[in-house]
Amino acid sequence: LFGGVTINPPSAAFSIAPDGFSIPPGNYQSETVTLTPNATTNSATAVITSNDPVHNMLSVTLKGAGFAGKLSVPGVFSFSGVVGQQTEADLQIKNIGKGALSGNWNSLSNGPYTVAGASFGPLQPGATQPIKIEFMPTAKGPAPAGSLPITVNAPSTGGRTVILRGTGK
User: Fold this and answer.
1) Max CA distance (Å), the chain
2) 87, β-bridge pairs
3) For 54-109, how does the pLDDT look when each residue is reduced to its tens digit (9 = 90+)?
4) Residue 100 contacts residue 49 (beta carbons within 8 Å)
5) Is the pTM of this model over 0.70?
6) How far is C-alpha 152 from the chain's CA centre?
7) Rounded to an integer, what distance in angstroms lies between the CA atom of residue 127 and that of residue 155?
8) Residue 91 to residue 64: CA distance in whole angstroms
9) Virtual CA dihedral for 137, 168, 75, 160, nearest 10 degrees?
10) Taking the alpha carbons of 153, 158, 163, 166 in that order, is the dihedral positive or negative?
11) How far apart are CA 168 and CA 111, in angstroms?
12) Among candidates 47, 40, 39, which has minimal Cα distance to 12?
Protein backbone atom coordinates (compact mmCIF):
# COMPACT_ATOMS: atom_id res chain seq x y z
CA LEU A 1 0.00 0.00 0.00
CA PHE A 2 1.46 3.35 -1.06
CA GLY A 3 0.20 6.80 -0.19
CA GLY A 4 0.57 10.08 1.61
CA VAL A 5 -0.84 12.22 4.38
CA THR A 6 -1.56 15.94 4.17
CA ILE A 7 -3.09 18.49 6.53
CA ASN A 8 -6.08 20.28 5.02
CA PRO A 9 -6.25 23.21 5.13
CA PRO A 10 -2.50 23.66 5.63
CA SER A 11 -2.01 24.45 9.30
CA ALA A 12 0.72 26.11 11.32
CA ALA A 13 -0.71 24.38 14.40
CA PHE A 14 -0.51 20.76 13.18
CA SER A 15 2.20 18.74 11.47
CA ILE A 16 2.33 15.06 10.65
CA ALA A 17 5.28 12.76 9.99
CA PRO A 18 6.09 10.89 7.98
CA ASP A 19 3.98 12.38 5.23
CA GLY A 20 4.22 9.32 2.99
CA PHE A 21 4.01 5.59 3.42
CA SER A 22 4.78 2.26 1.82
CA ILE A 23 3.22 -0.52 3.88
CA PRO A 24 3.64 -4.23 3.03
CA PRO A 25 0.46 -6.40 3.25
CA GLY A 26 -0.51 -7.25 6.85
CA ASN A 27 1.63 -4.48 8.39
CA TYR A 28 0.97 -1.00 9.67
CA GLN A 29 2.76 2.32 10.07
CA SER A 30 2.47 4.85 12.88
CA GLU A 31 2.09 8.54 12.15
CA THR A 32 3.13 11.25 14.59
CA VAL A 33 0.83 14.26 14.82
CA THR A 34 2.39 17.31 16.47
CA LEU A 35 0.36 20.21 17.80
CA THR A 36 2.00 23.61 18.17
CA PRO A 37 -1.04 25.60 19.24
CA ASN A 38 -1.54 29.06 17.82
CA ALA A 39 -5.00 29.51 19.33
CA THR A 40 -6.91 28.20 22.31
CA THR A 41 -8.84 25.91 19.93
CA ASN A 42 -7.02 24.40 16.94
CA SER A 43 -8.49 22.14 14.28
CA ALA A 44 -7.62 20.73 10.88
CA THR A 45 -8.17 17.58 8.84
CA ALA A 46 -5.57 14.93 8.04
CA VAL A 47 -6.26 13.55 4.59
CA ILE A 48 -4.80 10.09 3.92
CA THR A 49 -4.63 9.06 0.28
CA SER A 50 -3.48 5.67 -0.97
CA ASN A 51 -3.42 3.38 -3.97
CA ASP A 52 -6.07 1.13 -2.34
CA PRO A 53 -8.84 0.91 -4.97
CA VAL A 54 -11.59 0.58 -2.31
CA HIS A 55 -10.36 3.00 0.37
CA ASN A 56 -8.26 5.48 -1.57
CA MET A 57 -9.02 8.42 0.74
CA LEU A 58 -9.69 8.77 4.45
CA SER A 59 -10.22 11.98 6.43
CA VAL A 60 -9.38 12.28 10.12
CA THR A 61 -10.40 15.35 12.14
CA LEU A 62 -7.61 16.81 14.27
CA LYS A 63 -8.48 18.97 17.27
CA GLY A 64 -6.27 20.32 20.01
CA ALA A 65 -6.37 22.89 22.75
CA GLY A 66 -3.70 25.47 23.37
CA PHE A 67 -3.19 27.45 26.51
CA ALA A 68 -3.32 31.22 26.42
CA GLY A 69 -1.14 33.69 28.23
CA LYS A 70 -2.76 36.28 30.49
CA LEU A 71 -1.39 39.71 31.28
CA SER A 72 -1.23 40.88 34.87
CA VAL A 73 -0.43 44.54 35.40
CA PRO A 74 -1.73 47.07 37.93
CA GLY A 75 -4.47 49.41 36.75
CA VAL A 76 -2.67 52.37 38.33
CA PHE A 77 1.08 52.92 38.62
CA SER A 78 2.11 55.64 41.07
CA PHE A 79 5.54 57.08 41.81
CA SER A 80 7.15 60.35 42.81
CA GLY A 81 10.14 62.44 41.85
CA VAL A 82 11.96 65.67 42.64
CA VAL A 83 10.68 68.70 40.72
CA GLY A 84 12.88 69.41 37.69
CA GLN A 85 14.69 66.05 37.86
CA GLN A 86 13.97 63.01 35.76
CA THR A 87 13.01 59.90 37.72
CA GLU A 88 12.83 56.40 36.27
CA ALA A 89 10.65 53.56 37.52
CA ASP A 90 9.90 50.07 36.21
CA LEU A 91 6.31 48.94 35.74
CA GLN A 92 6.35 45.13 35.87
CA ILE A 93 4.12 43.13 33.57
CA LYS A 94 3.61 39.43 34.29
CA ASN A 95 2.21 36.42 32.46
CA ILE A 96 -0.22 34.69 34.84
CA GLY A 97 -1.63 32.43 32.11
CA LYS A 98 -0.75 28.85 31.18
CA GLY A 99 0.59 29.65 27.71
CA ALA A 100 3.02 32.14 26.16
CA LEU A 101 2.16 35.85 26.24
CA SER A 102 3.19 38.50 23.74
CA GLY A 103 2.05 41.96 22.80
CA ASN A 104 3.18 45.58 22.92
CA TRP A 105 2.83 48.91 24.66
CA ASN A 106 2.57 52.30 23.05
CA SER A 107 5.02 55.17 23.20
CA LEU A 108 4.10 57.99 25.50
CA SER A 109 5.76 61.39 25.36
CA ASN A 110 3.20 63.87 26.63
CA GLY A 111 4.94 65.22 29.71
CA PRO A 112 5.59 64.64 32.45
CA TYR A 113 5.78 60.93 31.43
CA THR A 114 7.92 59.32 28.76
CA VAL A 115 7.74 55.68 27.68
CA ALA A 116 9.43 54.13 24.65
CA GLY A 117 6.96 51.86 22.89
CA ALA A 118 8.06 48.27 22.38
CA SER A 119 6.92 44.70 21.83
CA PHE A 120 7.22 42.02 24.48
CA GLY A 121 7.29 38.25 24.56
CA PRO A 122 6.88 35.58 24.18
CA LEU A 123 6.81 35.55 27.98
CA GLN A 124 6.48 32.06 29.41
CA PRO A 125 4.02 31.42 32.27
CA GLY A 126 5.18 33.21 35.41
CA ALA A 127 7.70 35.39 33.55
CA THR A 128 7.88 39.16 34.02
CA GLN A 129 9.20 42.07 32.00
CA PRO A 130 9.76 45.68 33.04
CA ILE A 131 8.49 48.75 31.23
CA LYS A 132 10.76 51.74 31.91
CA ILE A 133 8.78 54.87 32.69
CA GLU A 134 10.42 58.29 32.99
CA PHE A 135 8.79 61.02 35.05
CA MET A 136 9.82 64.69 35.10
CA PRO A 137 7.62 66.69 37.49
CA THR A 138 7.38 70.41 36.85
CA ALA A 139 5.69 71.35 40.12
CA LYS A 140 5.15 69.99 43.62
CA GLY A 141 2.07 67.87 44.14
CA PRO A 142 0.11 65.56 41.87
CA ALA A 143 0.98 65.72 38.19
CA PRO A 144 -1.66 65.19 35.49
CA ALA A 145 -2.40 61.49 34.98
CA GLY A 146 -1.09 59.67 31.92
CA SER A 147 -2.38 56.61 30.07
CA LEU A 148 -0.26 53.67 28.91
CA PRO A 149 -2.15 51.18 26.70
CA ILE A 150 -0.78 47.62 26.77
CA THR A 151 -2.16 45.19 24.19
CA VAL A 152 -1.72 41.44 23.98
CA ASN A 153 -1.70 39.21 20.91
CA ALA A 154 -4.44 36.60 20.52
CA PRO A 155 -5.13 34.11 21.88
CA SER A 156 -3.77 35.72 25.04
CA THR A 157 -5.94 37.98 27.18
CA GLY A 158 -5.65 40.78 29.70
CA GLY A 159 -4.76 43.86 27.66
CA ARG A 160 -5.46 47.09 29.52
CA THR A 161 -4.60 50.74 29.87
CA VAL A 162 -2.49 51.59 32.92
CA ILE A 163 -3.08 54.99 34.51
CA LEU A 164 0.21 56.72 35.40
CA ARG A 165 0.12 58.95 38.50
CA GLY A 166 3.16 60.99 39.48
CA THR A 167 3.77 63.33 42.35
CA GLY A 168 6.37 66.09 42.39
CA LYS A 169 8.34 66.59 45.61
Assistant:
1) 87
2) 135
3) 989 999 999 987 788 999 999 999 999 999 999 999 999 999 998 889 999 999 99
4) no
5) no
6) 7
7) 17
8) 35
9) 0
10) negative
11) 13
12) 39
